[in-house]
UniProtKB/TrEMBL annotation:
GO terms for cellular component: cell surface; focal adhesion; integrin complex. Belongs to the integrin beta chain family. The gene is ITGB4. This is Integrin beta. CDD domains: FN3. Transmembrane segments: none annotated.
C-alpha cells in the first residue's frame, strides 16, 4: 500500500493529532510528554523516536507503524514472568500443598497475566483445634458439660485428622470498672466456688496428648464479671498472634472454636472511655509466664477489621459456637470473615461436639481462593477449570485429589485518576499470597508494576539543528526553550504567533479548512476530532475509498485521507487480501499454473480458452468443451470443416493426438462426437485438461453411414426461405400489426433469444445509519436489439432471511388491520419546478385532481379511506419518460385488500386512465409494510431504467435483514428475463461484537465483599475488541460504601465474558450492628466500544448494596406428587422466589418411606428458580410397591427461608404395563409419565417452554405427544386470574406466539393436544413474564395553588406502568394565549418515583404556564401528560399547606441546567438562615392565625373562624346569631394512636354545642421493613370550607350521631326577601373584603409569623422555620413553644436574633405528635401565635429507648387501572362501554366510577356508578352527541379507595356531520389532588331550609366530597342543577365519614 507523506514544514502535526485523533485509546489519550510517560501509560503502548516522524509519537504499536514510523525507531517495553519454585505435588505427604510455590511477575500498567495453580488437600491432614471458652458465671453448666465430654471430644478430633493437636483457653473481660466488680471480695471470688476475674489465659497449649488435655480440663473453675458483653476479642487476638505460646503448627489447618452466650466488646464501643482505656490495641503478644494476658487494662479491645486481618494472616478459621441469645450478633459477624462458621449451642452447650463436627464439614465443603497482601494497584480474579468466574465457595476440591484453578492478576492503569506509576512503591509492588482459605501453604507471587524509562532520554542533543537551535532533541522530538513554540521550536511566543494565515495553505484558503480553531503558531484544533484530522483539519475520516459500499472495505481505518488496512489486507480501499488462498485452484495450484494472483484474484492469459476464476479451463462456461474443440479437431484430424484452411487451423490452442482406441470415461475426461459435413461420417474424440494445455485424443477411424435422404435438404431450405419472404412482406405492408407480429415472433425460439431484461446488480449491502432515503433505485438493463417496447413487472419481499419457523414469521398479522399502502404512478404530464412546492398553485390544482380521481377509483376497495400525503417528483433513469411527473400518495385500507389494490391499479394503468386522470402505461408501484409490486417500461431504444424499490426500514428490523427484488414476467414485449433476482442486505449497525450487562440490576450484600459484575460479549466477527466501564454514585458513595471502578476490558478471540469486581466496603462497627440500614445503590455504565463493537440491550446496570438482603423463599412446587411403581424415577420440583440473584441452599429429607431414608442438599445458583429432587426407587433394596411418604425441606442457608409448602406428599400407585413403544417414548421425554391414554386420548405435550419475545409477546414451544394430534389448544391467562377466564388459541404446530399481551405482566399457560377423540391431557402450568415497555402517561395533574407565584403540582402514577417506574420529569414553560412558548422551558427530574409532587416557587405573576409530566422505567420515557393554568386566576387556599419532607422544591428563577435548581425540603432548611424557597404551610391572608368571615344579613350575622393549624387536630367553630338567639358549634377532631371514645356536650337555645371525636389508628403493632424507610412528617389539614347560612328569624335544632356518621338539621323560619339574590351576594362579598382589610392589630405589634415550615432532620430532630411577620416596628426576637399533643411540659425556646427565623430541636420522640407555637416580639409586645401540629414518623428500632411507642406507618394499596376501554356504538347518540377488571385488584373490587365529558369542553361532565367484580364489565351510555369527541375515564374501587384512571376517547361519527341540540344544564367540576400519608374519607351533609338564602338559588344542591386514600388527598366539588318539588326550597348537602 502506498504510504501517504506530508511536507516536513507541517511541523505541528503531533499537536494536531493529539486533538483530532478519532480512536480513543489510553496510549494516545495519555498525552504523553516524553518517551517514558508513553511507555508508562499502559500495556501495548509504543513510542516512535524517528526524527522525521510526523504522526502521534505515543500510540499503539500497529497504529504507529500504520502512520509510517520505521520498526527500528519504535520503542516498546515488555514485562516478565518467572517461576522461581515449582515442586510437583506429592500426594503421599499428608499436608496441604500448592504448585507452583514461588513466582515473580512484572506488569505493565493495564496488563493482566494468567497462571494455573494446582492444590492438594489431604484426606485427613494435620489439624490444630483450639477451644476458647467464655468463663463468665452464666457458662458454668456449659463448662461442666465440656468436662464430661472430654473423651468424646478427643474421639471427634481423631476422626477429623490422624495428625491433630488440641488446646484450651478461657476468657472473661478486662479487670477494671465498669466491666468487673472491683471490690476486694469480688476480686478474690466473684461467685461462690469460682476463680478470680481475668481477661484471657492460655490454659492448655496445643498438644497431641488427649489424656493430658482431659485431665487438665477437669481442674478449671468458672469466674465472673459485671456487664453482659464479654472481652472475647482480646482473647481471640492473643490466641492468633501468640503462635509459640499457643502452639500453632506451620502446615496444619488452624481451627479456633469460640464458645460464649454473650455479645462482645469491640474497639471504641464507649465502655473504653468509661474505664479510661484510650490507647489502641498494638496487635502484639502479651502473655506472661502463666500464659495470662497482661495488657488488658492498658489498651482497648481490637476492632473487627483487625481480627479479620490477623486471623487471615495466621491462617486461623474461627468457629463461633454461641447460644440463641447472641446468635444474631455472631451470625452477622461471621459474614465479615473470608471463611468462618457459626453454630447454635443449646443453653448448656450439650451439643457443642455436634456443632464442631458440622462446622468442620461445612468449612471443608466451602473452598474459596484468596489473594492476601495484594497491593492496591493489582486486581485478582479466579476461574474454575472450565473458565467460569468462581464465586465464593465454588471450588469443590476433593480431599486426597489434586485440584486446579486459574488466577488472573491485573495491574491497573490508574486508580482514582492517578497513574499507578505515580503511586507509592508499597501500593504497586509486594508479595501476594494466593491460597485456598483452609490452607496454610500458598503461592507467593512477587508482583510489581513495571514503570519503564527510555534510554534515549539520557542522551539529549542540545540546541539541535532540527529544533532550529531553540530547543533540545530528546527521543526524536523537540523540547523547546522558553519563548519558543511548535514541534520544531520555530515559532516565537509573540503576538505574531496568533496570525491565522499560518493555518492556511495555497490550496486551503479558509483557516483550518473551516473545521477547527486556529491557535498559536498555526496549530489547528478540529471542531469534531471524530470526523476531521490533519494539520489543517483537511481530511474527512468518512471520505476514504470505499469497496462494496463499505468504508475501507470494513477492513481498515481512514487515516489522513487514506485507508490504513488491518493485518492481512492491502489496497487503496483494503480490498485486497495479502494471502493467495483465494487464487488456488481445485488442485492446489496458484491460478492453475497459468496466471498471476493480483489483489486476491487471478489474472489469466488470453489463450482463447475460456478460463475459470482460478485460470482453469472452463469449457462449460459458454458452449461446452465439445463445441469449443469441434472445429479444431476437424481441421487437424481430417482437414475439413470451417477451419480447414491451414492458416486458420494453426491458430488452434491445442494439438490433437490420433489414437486407435479412446480411454474409458472418467471424472475429468469429456467424450465428444460430431458428424463431418463433408462426408456425413461421425468422428469421436476425448478431451482432458492438463496443467498447461488441453489434451485431445481423436479416434483414427470414422463411423460412416450408408446413403440417406440427402435430397430433402435443398427442398427444406427452399421452403424456409419462402416463409421468410412472406413474413417480411407482411411486416412492411402492415405496420399497425407490429405488436402482434412481435408476439408471434416471441413464440419462435430463434427470435426470443434476441432480447433479455434483468437486474444489473446481484446484491447491495447497506448500513441503515448511512441511508439517506427509504427507497433504493436499482438499475434494470435490457440486452439485444433495443427495438420495441418491453414492460417488466417486479415485486419485492421484506425479511426473506427469516425462515418459515422464525418467531416473527409464525405471527400472522390481523387481516382487518388498517395499514398504509404507498402508491406511485407516472402522470401523463411533464414535471415542472412548481410541482415540487406543495404551496404552489400548480401543485394544489394537480393535488385536487389526483385526489378526486383516485378516491373515486379506490372507493371500490372495501374499507379504504381517502388518499393522503400526495407529492410529486421526477424519476431519473426512466428512459424517454424521465421528464414526466411521478405522483406518490398513500392509501389507508385493510391489510387483506393488498391484492385487490394491486389488480385495480394495474388495470387502470394499462388503460392509461384513472377516471379522468391521464397516466402513462407501463409504470406503477403499490407497497404495503412488508411487500411491494410494480412495473417499469423499456421504450424503444432504451437499454436501462431504474426500479424504485421500497426498503421497509423499521425500528423492529433485525440487525441484519434481507430484501429480495424479483423480476416476475414481461406482460408486454418479447424480452426474456435474464438476471431475475437482486438481494438487498441492510445492516442496522455493523458490529463485530455486542457488549451488554447480563441483567439491568444486581443485588449484593456487604458480606459478599465484592460485587462481581459480568459483562458479556456476543461475537459476530471474532477478534480482539475492547469496551470501557465506569461506576457512578447513586445513593451509595464511592470510598464510603464501595470502591469505584473504571477502565477498559480487552476481550481476546473467542472470549465471551469478563467480570468486573467492585469491592464493597464495610460499615463502621456501630452501624454494622444496627438492624435497620438504608439500601445503597450505584450504577456501572459501558461506553466507547472499540474495534467495531457496539453496546447491546443493557449498557447500564444498577447495583444494590443491601446489608440485609431479602431472603430467598424455597418450597415445593406442589403439595402432592403422584407417581406409579413403573416410573423409573420420582422427580419432585422445588421452586425459589425472591432474591434470585444470590446463591442459596436448603436441605431435604424423606419421611415415612418404607424402603429408604434419604436426605441431601439442594443448591440454587444465581438466577436459578427451580431445582428437582430425583429419587431412583430401583436403587434401593426390595421391590417397588405402592406407598405414600413425605419429603421435607429444612435448614435453609442464612439468606433463605422455607416457604409455606415445607412438605410434599409423594403418592406411589400401582402402575399399568404399557407397550414397549410408549415406554421408549417416555424414556426419550416425549411422554408425560403421569399422563395416561384411556380410550385413545392423547397424552400431554412435553417440555413446554415459554419465553418473552417482547412487551406484548410470548413464544411457546413444546414436544408433541405420541400419536397423531390434529392440533393443540393453548390456554393462557394473567397470573392470579382463575383459569376459567383463560383465552384459548388453536394452533397446528408445536409452537405458538401469544400476542397483544400486557407489558411486564405475569402470565400462566398450559397446552393440550387434541384429535378426533377429543382433548388430551394438559401440561403443567408454566409461567412467564412479558418484557417491560415504556410507561403510559401519568395520571391527571393537580394543582394546589398557594399564591399567584407558588403552586404545588402533583400527579398520579401512570395507569400502565409497564414496568417499575424509576423517575419522573416535569417541564413547565410560560406560554401566551396561542399556547406558544414565551420563555425558556425548565426541566426537573425526580429520581424517586414515590415523590409524585413538586412545589414550584417564584413563578411569574399572572403568567400562564404549561406543565408537562412524564414517567420513565428501564425501557425509557413515556408520553407526557400536560395541563395549562394561570395561578392568578385560581382561588388560593387560605389554610396550612401539608408539605411532606423530601418533596422536591424548585425555584422558577433558577438556572436552566437540568437538575441544578432541584432540591428537597429536607435539605432546604439545613442552613441557619433557611432558604428563599422553603416548603411552606400557611399563607399571609390570615389574621391572628384565623380566617375570619363576617357576613351581615337582615336580622342577624354569621362569623366563621377556621384555625390555621396544619395538624391532625383541626378546629372548626361557627357562630350563628339570629333574631331569636345565637348558636355556637365547635368540632374538634384529633388523631391519636391510643384508644378513645366520643364525648359530647350540647346546649340548645342560645347555648354551645361541642362534639369531640377521638379516632384510633387501625393498627397498633406495625412491623418495619428495610425497603423504603425514611423519616416523614405527617400533617393534617382542615378538610373543606363552605359558607354558613344565617337565618333572619328563630331556629330549631335536632341532631343524630352514630359511630360512622353525624347529621344535623337546622330549621329556620321564613322571612321576606328584601333584595335580589345578586345584590345579597355582592354585599356579602364586599363585607368580607372589609373585614379582611380592617381587621388589624394595634400598630407596632407584630402580626402572626407566616409560612410555618417543618423539616425532619432525623427520627428525633426537627427544624422549624417561619417567615418574618408584618410589623410597623422592628422585630426584636421570636419565641418557639412546643409540647406533646397528649399533654406534658410546655418547652420554650427564645430566639433573640431577629435575623434568625429557624430553630433546630433535637429532643423529640419519634412517632409522637407535637404542638408548636411561634410568635414574634417588638417594642410594643408579643404578637399572636402561629400554631402547627406535626408528627415525625420514623422506623426506629422498636427495642430502642428512643421509641416508647410501638408501631409504624401503614400504607394502603389501591387497585391498578382497569383494562383497555372498548367502545361499541349502539345508535347515533348512545354507545356501550366495556372494560376488563384491573390486573392487580389488590382486594375485592366493590365497583367502578365512570366519568364522561366532552374532550374540548362544553356540556357537563357525567358520572356513573357501576357495581360488580366481573372479569369484564360494561355500561350503556345514552344521550351523546354525534361528531363530538368524548373522553371517558374509569376507576376501580375497593375498600382501600379508588385506583388510577383508564382513559379513552371516542367519537360517534354521522354521515351528514350534523350536531344535535345541546343540553340546557350546566355543570362545573373541580378536583384537586395532593399527597397525604394517611387515609381519611369525609362526606358531610348539612341541610338548611330557608327562604331568604342569599347564596343559593332555588333548586340547587352543593356536594363536597373529601377523600384521602393511599397517600393521596382527592377533593371533588360538584355543583349541579336539580329539580325541586318544594317551591323556594334550598338544600346544601355535605357528608362526612371518618375512617383511619
Amino acid at each position: 500500500m502506498e504510504r501517504w507523506k506530508l511536507h516536513p514544514s507541517l511541523g505541528l502535526l503531533a499537536i494536531l493529532l493529539t486533538c483530532c485523533y478519532a480512536e480513543v485509546n489510553y496510549c494516545f489519550a495519555s498525552r504523553a510528554k516524553s518517551c517514558s510517560d508513553c511507555l508508562q501509560a499502559g500495556v501495548g503502548c509504543a513510542y516512535c523516536a524517528e526524527e522525521t516522524f510526523n504522526g502521534p509519537r505515543c500510540d499503539e504499536l500497529d497504529r504507529i507503524l500504520a502512520h509510517g514510523c520505521s520498526k527500528a525507531s519504535v520503542i516498546t517495553a515488555e514485562s516478565s514472568l518467572n517461576v522461581k519454585m515449582n515442586k510437583t505435588i506429592d500426594t503421599r505427604i499428608q499436608q496441604s500443598q500448592v504448585s507452583p510455590q514461588q513466582v515473580s511477575m512484572t506488569f505493565l500498567p493495564g496488563e493482566e497475566k494468567l497462571m494455573d495453580v494446582e492444590v492438594f488437600a489431604p484426606t485427613k491432614g494435620p489439624l490444630d483445634l483450639y477451644i476458647l471458652m467464655d468463663f463468665s458465671n452464666s457458662m458454668s453448666d456449659d463448662l461442666d458439660n465440656l468436662k464430661k465430654m472430654g473423651n468424646d471430644l478427643a474421639s471427634l478430633v481423631r476422626n477429623m485428622s490422624d495428625d491433630y493437636t488440641i488446646g484450651f483457653g478461657k476468657f472473661v473481660d478486662k479487670v477494671i470498672e465498669p466491666q468487673t466488680d472491683m471490690r476486694p471480695v469480688k476480686l478474690l471470688q466473684p461467685w461462690p466456688n469460682s476463680d478470680p476475674p481475668f481477661s484471657f489465659q492460655n490454659v492448655i497449649k496445643l498438644t497431641g496428648d488427649s489424656t493430658h488435655f482431659i485431665s487438665e480440663l477437669q481442674k478449671e473453675r468458672i469466674s465472673g464479671n459485671l456487664d453482659a458483653p464479654e472481652g472475647g476479642f482480646d482473647a481471640i487476638l492473643q490466641a492468633a498472634v501468640c503462635e509459640e505460646k499457643i502452639g500453632w503448627r506451620k502446615y496444619s489447618t488452624h481451627l479456633l472454636v469460640f464458645s460464649t452466650e454473650s455479645a462482645f466488646h469491640y474497639e471504641a464501643d464507649g465502655v473504653n472511655v468509661l474505664s479510661g482505656i484510650l490507647p489502641r490495641n498494638d496487635e502484639q503478644c502479651h502473655l506472661n509466664a502463666q500464659d495470662q494476658y497482661t495488657e488488658d487494662t492498658k489498651q482497648d479491645y481490637p476492632s473487627i477489621p483487625t481480627l479479620i486481618r490477623l486471623l487471615g494472616k495466621h491462617n486461623i478459621i474461627p468457629i463461633f459456637a454461641v447460644t440463641e441469645h447472641s446468635y444474631t450478633y455472631y451470625n452477622k459477624l461471621k459474614d465479615y470473615f473470608p471463611i468462618a462458621e457459626v453454630g447454635l449451642l443449646e443453653e448448656d452447650s450439650s451439643n457443642i461436639l455436634q456443632v464442631m463436627k458440622t462446622a468442620f464439614e461445612s468449612i471443608r465443603s466451602k473452598m474459596s481462593i484468596r489473594a492476601e497482601n495484594r497491593p492496591k494497584a493489582f486486581e485478582s480474579t479466579f476461574f474454575t477449570t472450565d473458565g467460569r468466574t468462581a464465586e465464593y465457595g465454588a471450588f469443590n476440591f476433593k480431599p486426597g485429589e489434586i485440584g486446579k484453578f486459574r488466577m488472573r492478576l491485573k495491574a491497573q492503569q490508574a486508580i482514582d485518576g492517578e497513574l499507578v506509576c505515580k503511586m507509592n512503591p508499597e501500593d504497586k509492588e509486594g508479595t501476594i499470597r494466593v491460597k485456598p482459605t483452609t490452607f496454610s501453604s500458598a503461592v507467593n507471587v512477587e508482583a510489581s508494576v513495571l514503570c519503564p524509562t527510555c534510554d534515549c532520554e539520557k542522551t539529549r542533543l542540545r540546541n539541535a539543528e532540527r529544533c532550529n537551535g531553540n530547543g533540545d532533541l530528546v527521543c526524536g522530538r523537540c523540547q523547546c526553550h522558553g519563548g519558543w513554540l511548535g514541534n520544531f521550536c520555530n515559532c516565537s511566543a509573540s503576538t505574531s504567533a496568533l496570525d491565522k494565515n499560518q493555518c492556511t495553505t495555497p490550496d486551503i484558503k479558509e483557516p483550518c479548512s473551516g473545521r477547527g480553531d486556529c491557535l498559536a503558531c498555526g496549530t489547528c484544533v478540529c471542531y469534531n476530532p471524530d470526523q476531521f484530522e490533519g494539520p489543517y483539519c483537511q481530511f474527512d475520516k468518512n471520505q476514504c475509498q470505499r469497496y462494496g459500499g463499505f468504508l475501507c472495505n470494513d477492513r481498515g481505518k481512514c487515516i489522513m485521507g487514506q485507508c490504513s488496512c488491518q493485518k492481512g489486507w492491502e489496497g487503496s480501499a483494503c480490498e485486497c487480501p495479502t494471502s493467495n488462498q483465494t487464487c488456488l485452484d481445485t488442485k492446489g495450484n496458484l491460478c492453475g499454473g497459468r496466471g498471476a494472483c493480483v489483489c486476491g484474484r487471478c489474472q489469466c492469459p488470453d489463450s482463447g480458452i475460456e478460463m475459470s476464476a482460478n485460470c482453469e479451463p472452463n469449457f462449460q462456461f459458454q458452449f461446452g468443451v465439445c463445441e469449443f474443440t469441434r472445429s479444431c479437431v476437424q481441421c487437424q484430424a481430417w482437414k475439413t470443416g470451417e477451419k480447414k484452411d491451414k492458416e486458420e487451423c494453426d491458430k488452434c490452442p491445442f494439438k490433437v493426438i490420433m489414437v486407435d482406441e479412446l480411454e474409458e470415461e472418467k471424472q475429468d475426461l469429456e467424450s465428444c462426437s460430431f458428424r463431418d459435413e463433408d462426408d456425413d461420417c461421425t468422428y469421436y474424440y476425448t478431451t482432458q485438461p492438463k496443467t498447461k494445455e488441453l489434451e485431445v485424443q481423436v479416434l483414427k477411424k470414422k463411423d460412416c453411414p450408408g446413403a440417406g435422404l440427402l435430397w430433402l435438404l435443398p427442398f427444406l431450405l427452399f421452403l424456409l426461405l419462402l416463409l421468410a419472404l412472406l413474413l417480411l412482406c407482411c411486416w412492411k405492408l402492415c405496420p399497425c400489426c407490429k405488436s402482434c407480429w412481435q408476439g408471434c415472433l416471441a413464440l419462435l425460439p430463434c427470435c426470443r433469444r434476441g432480447r433479455m431484461v434483468g437486474f444489473k446488480e446481484d446484491e447491495y449491502v447497506m448500513r441503515q445509519s448511512l441511508l439517506t432515503s427509504d427507497h433504493l433505485d436499482t438499475p434494470m438493463v435490457r440486452t439485444g436489439p433495443p427495438k420495441g417496447t418491453d414492460v417488466v413487472r417486479w415485486k419485492v419481499t421484506d425479511n426473506v432471511h427469516r425462515g418459515p419457523n422464525h418467531p416473527q414469521a409464525l405471527i400472522e398479522p390481523n387481516p382487518k388491520e388498517m395499514i398504509q399502502f404507498p402508491i406511485s404512478l407516472r402522470l401523463n404530464r411533464l414535471f415542472s419546478e412548481n410541482l415540487s412546492r406543495p404551496e404552489s398553485r400548480d401543485a394544489e390544482q394537480l393535488h385536487m385532481e389526483v385526489a378526486d380521481n383516485l378516491n373515486e377509483v379506490y372507493k371500490q376497495i372495501p374499507g379504504a379511506h381517502k388518499i393522503q400525503q400526495t407529492s410529486f417528483r421526477l424519476q431519473k433513469n426512466a428512459g424517454k419518460r424521465q421528464d414526466y411527473t411521478i405522483m406518490d400518495t398513500v392509501l389507508s385500507a385493510p391489510r387483506n385488500a393488498y391484492p385487490d389494490i394491486v389488480k385495480l391499479t394495474e388495470r387502470n394503468v394499462q388503460s392509461g386512465n384513472f377516471r379522468d386522470l391521464k397516466v402513462v402505461p407501463g409504470y406503477y408501484t403499490v407497497a404495503s409494510d412488508r411487500e411491494a409490486a410494480g412495473a417499469v417500461e423499456f421504450q424503444e431504444g432504451v437499454e436501462s431504467v431504474d426500479v424504485h424499490v421500497p426498503l421497509f426500514v423499521k425500528d423492529e428490523d433485525d440487525d441484519k435483514k434481507q430484501l429480495q427484488v424479483e423480476a416476475r414476467d414481461v406482460p408486454l414485449g418479447i424480452a426474456e428475463i435474464g438476471k431475475r433476482f437482486v438481494n438487498i442486505t441492510i445492516i442496522k449497525e455493523h458490529a463485530t461484537s455486542v457488549f451488554s450487562f447480563l441483567q439491568p440490576n444486581y443485588t449484593y450484600s456487604r458480606q459478599d465483599r465484592v460485587a462481581n459484575i459480568p459483562i458479556s460479549r456476543e461475537i459476530i466477527e471474532d477478534g480482539l475488541t475492547q469496551v470501557t466501564y465506569r461506576t457512578k454514585d447513586l445513593t451509595a458513595k464511592d470510598k464510603k460504601d464501595y470502591v469505584g471502578k473504571e477502565g477498559d476490558l480487552s476481550y481476546s478471540p473467542g472470549e465471551t465474558q469478563k467480570v468486573v469486581p467492585v469491592p464493597l466496603l464495610e460499615l463502621s462497627e456501630r452501624d454494622g450492628l444496627l438492624e435497620d440500614k438504608k439500601i445503597k445503590q450505584f450504577v456501572m455504565d459501558l461506553s466507547n466500544p472499540r474495534q467495531g463493537a457496539k453496546l447491546g440491550r443493557y449498557p447500564r446496570t444498577t447495583v444494590t448494596i443491601a446489608d440485609q438482603p431479602e431472603p430467598s423463599v424455597m418450597m415445593f412446587k406442589k403439595g402432592m406428587q403422584n407417581f406409579s411403581t413403573l416410573d423409573p424415577a420420582y422427580t419432585i420440583p422445588v421452586v425459589r422466589t425472591r432474591n434470585q440473584d444470590a446463591p442459596a441452599s436448603v436441605k431435604w429429607r424423606t419421611k415415612k418411606a418404607q424402603r429408604f431414608e434419604l436426605s441431601g442438599p439442594l443448591m440454587f445458583g444465581p438466577g436459578e428458580t427451580e431445582k428437582n429432587i430425583v429419587i431412583d426407587p430401583k436403587a434401593h433394596p426390595g421391590p417397588v410397591k405402592p406407598e405414600t411418604f413425605q419429603l421435607e425441606l429444612f435448614d435453609p442457608s442464612t439468606n433463605a427461608l422455607v416457604g409455606e409448602r415445607k412438605t410434599t406428599n409423594v403418592n406411589v400407585t400401582e402402575g399399568v404395563l404399557r407397550s414397549p413403544d410408549v415406554d421408549q417414548l417416555q424414556q426419550k421425554a416425549f411422554t408425560n409419565p403421569k399422563a395416561t391414554s384411556p380410550g385413545g386420548r392423547l397424552l400431554s405435550p412435553a417440555n413446554l417452554k415459554a419465553r418473552a419475545t417482547g412487551p406484548r409477546n410470548i413464544h411457546l414451544n413444546w414436544d408433541p405427544p405420541p400419536g397423531n394430534p390434529a392440533g393443540y389448544k393453548v390456554k393462557y391467562w394473567i397470573y392470579g386470574d382463575p383459569e376459567k377466564d383463560a383465552q384459548v388459541l388453536d394452533v397446528k404446530t408445536p409452537q405458538a406466539e401469544l400476542t397483544n399481551l400486557y407489558p411486564y405482566c405475569d402470565y400462566e399457560t398450559r397446552v393440550c393436544a387434541y384429535n378426533a377423540m377429543g382433548d388430551g391431557e394438559n401440561t403443567e402450568v408454566v409461567s412467564c413474564q412479558t418484557l417491560e415497555d415504556v410507561p403510559g402517561e401519568p395520571g391527571r395533574l393537580a394543582f394546589n395553588v398557594i399564591s399567584p407565584t407558588v403552586t404545588q403540582l402533583s400527579w398520579a402514577e401512570p395507569a400502565e406502568t409497564n414496568g417499575n417506574i424509576t423517575a419522573y420529569e416535569v417541564i413547565y414553560t410560560p406560554i401566551d394565549d396561542d399556547l406558544k412558548p414565551v420563555g425558556a422551558e425548565k426541566k426537573v427530574k425526580i429520581d424517586n418515583p414515590k415523590k409524585r409532587m413538586l412545589l414550584i416557587e417564584n413563578l411569574q405573576s399572572a403568567q400562564t404556564y404549561q406543565y408537562k409530566v412524564r414517567a420513565r422505567n428501564s425501557v425509557g420515557w413515556g408520553p407526557f401528560r400536560d395541563a395549562t393554568i394561570n395561578l392568578a386566576s385560581q382561588p388560593v387556599r387560605p389554610l396550612s399547606i401539608p408539605i411532606i419532607p423530601d418533596v422536591p422544591i424548585v425555584d422558577a428563577e433558577a438556572g436552566d441546567e437540568y437538575d441544578s435548581y432541584l432540591m428537597y425540603s429536607s435539605d432546604v432548611l439545613k442552613s441557619p438562615t433557611s432558604s428563599k424557597t422553603p416548603s411552606i404551610s400557611g399563607e399571609d391572608y390570615m389574621t391572628n392565625g384565623k380566617w375570619e368571615q363576617n357576613f351581615l344579613f337582615p336580622g342577624g350575622s354569621t362569623t366563621r373562624n377556621l384555625s390555621a393549624s396544619s395538624s391532625p387536630m383541626s378546629t372548626l367553630s361557627s357562630n350563628y346569631r339570629g333574631g331569636g338567639g345565637s348558636f355556637t358549634t365547635e368540632t374538634h377532631t384529633t388523631y391519636m394512636s391510643g384508644s378513645g371514645g366520643p364525648r359530647r356536650q350540647d346546649m340548645i337555645g342560645g347555648g354551645v354545642h361541642m362534639s369531640e371525636v377521638i379516632m384510633r389508628k387501625r393498627s397498633e403493632n406495625r412491623g418495619y421493613t428495610d425497603e423504603n424507610i425514611r423519616d416523614s412528617i405527617v400533617m393534617g389539614d382542615v378538610t373543606s370550607q363552605f359558607p354558613d347560612l344565617t337565618p333572619s328569624g328563630g331556629f330549631s335544632y335536632s341532631g343524630v350521631q352514630s359511630s360512622s356518621q353525624s347529621q344535623f338539621s337546622y330549621g329556620l323560619s321564613q322571612g321576606s326577601r328584601a333584595r335580589t339574590q345578586s345584590s345579597d351576594v355582592n354585599e356579602a362579598l364586599s363585607s368580607l373584603d372589609r373585614v379582611l382589610r380592617d381587621a388589624r392589630l394595634s400598630p407596632g405589634v407584630p402580626d402572626t409569623p407566616s409560612r410555618l415550615v417543618f423539616s425532619a432532620l432525623g427520627p428525633t430532630a426537627l427544624k422549624v422555620s417561619w417567615q418574618e411577620p408584618h410589623c410597623e416596628k422592628s422585630i426584636l426576637g421570636y419565641c418557639v413553644l412546643y409540647q406533646l399533643l397528649s399533654g406534658g411540659e410546655m418547652k420554650r425556646l427564645n430566639v433573640t436574633n431577629p435575623a434568625e427565623n429557624s430553630v433546630i430541636i433535637h429532643d423529640l420522640l419519634p412517632n409522637q405528635s407535637y404542638l408548636f407555637k411561634v410568635k414574634a416580639q417588638s417594642q410594643e409586645g408579643w404578637g399572636p401565635e402561629r400554631e402547627g401540629v406535626i408528627t415525625i414518623e420514623s422506623a426506629v428500632d422498636p427495642k430502642s429507648p428512643l421509641n416508647p411507642v410501638p408501631g409504624s406507618p401503614f400504607t394502603l394499596s389501591t387497585p391498578s387501572a382497569p383494562g383497555p376501554l372498548v367502545f361499541t356504538a349502539l345508535s347515533p347518540d348512545s354507545l356501550q362501554l366495556s372494560w376488563e377488571k384491573p390486573r392487580k385488584p389488590n382486594g375485592d373490587i366493590l365497583g367502578y366510577e365512570v366519568t364522561c365529558e366532552q374532550l374540548h369542553g362544553g356540556g357537563k361532565p357525567r358520572s356513573f356508578q357501576v357495581s360488580g367484580d366481573n372479569a369484564e364489565t360494561s355500561l350503556i351510555v345514552p344521550n351523546l352527541i354525534e361528531n363530538i369527541p368524548y373522553k371517558f375515564k374509569v376507576q376501580a374501587r375497593t375498600t382501600q379507595g379508588f385506583g388510577p384512571e383508564r382513559e379513552g376517547i371516542i367519537t360517534i361519527e354521522s354521515q351528514d356531520g350534523g350536531a344535535l341540540s345541546q343540553y340546557n344544564n350546566q355543570s362545573m367540576m373541580r378536583r384537586e389532588v395532593f399527597h397525604m400519608p394517611t387515609e381519611v374519607t369525609t362526606r358531610t351533609n348539612v341541610s338548611h331550609t330557608m327562604l331568604n338564602d342569599p347564596y343559593f338559588s332555588d333548586g340547587m344542591t352543593m356536594t363536597s366530597q373529601h377523600t384521602e386514600t393511599s397517600g393521596m388527598v382527592s377533593r371533588q366539588v360538584t355543583r349541579e342543577v336539580v329539580q325541586r318539588t318544594v317551591t323556594g326550597g334550598s338544600t346544601v348537602t355535605k357528608r362526612m365519614f371518618y375512617e383511619s
